[in-house]
Batch of 2 targets.
Target 1
Amino acid sequence: MDAIETSLGQLIEAIRNDEAYIKYQKCRSRLAELPEAAAEVSAFRQDTIAYAAQPESTDLQAYAERFSERYERLLKNPEIAAFLEAEEALVRTVRAVENGLYDSLDLAIPGYPEKGY
């Protein structure tokens, strides 16, 4: 396990030194200086999670339209747009690491796909 912990530490350090992480932290700091904008982003994230959890019987089309309009409105604020872009780039990096692990390891865990997801 020591080798894994060492490698994990190196991976974390590499991510923290990556341009995507550095940009995310800068955008996050700038957004924190704008409490109203930060609150809007937080509420949007919570609604995103709620949207993903909607039962199939819900009118998802109407929900998605309202969601899309709200997202477009948020993007008109340059600080929010920069933050969301930086956040997405960092999430892609983390997902690539996660997918790389799943794709490279032969796991047989119920509920998890055999290769990536």
Target 2
Amino acid sequence: MILRNRLYERKEPDRDATLCIIYCEGSKREPQYFQYFKGLSSRIILEVVEADSQGDNSPSGLYQLACSDIEGYGSDSLVKYEVGEGDQVWFVIDTDDWGSHIPQLRLGCARKTNWHVVQSNPCFEVWLYYHLFAEDAATVVLADCTAWKNHVNAMIPGGFDSRKHPILIADAIANAQRYFNPAGVEVLYGSTEMFKLGKALYPIVASAVEKARRMINL
């Protein structure tokens, strides 16, 4: 039994719960991370859409998928998610593969209500790093995302564990925001906008997360 299930009782959403849809560029690490928060509060319905290995996980591909899911665009006219006022749509994107393509995604989201992009440079592991380390990630100079994944796992005994380490989301928000280093709309190396999504999610699940954190003394 995983640690996550031992600490929390899954809660059914209220009728007026906020719907939060997260479209992930990745098919493993990001979805596993966000799944940790599902069912922690009756105030939120968290839908995590992982990348389809047979589909298009580029920024434009994820945008078109979201439009199809929410507005019925494309060949499949069925609407998958009923999005209302106050609901949120998020795209979790890495600079490493898609840097030059991200501005177009941002432009598309700017035309929508409560659609957001959170970019990590070079990759999502910068956000994971900030869960356990309060030092500026920009000082960790590595060649690519693979090196970042290896580095984060090497720095944490047993590697980053999505069954327990997301409980440190409050630390990650504070650290990532402290060292956020944009240049205009560009997100510079060692920076991540994930704290913006964290600040939208954390207040809703904070009670359950902090209670569990005290139990395991993380």
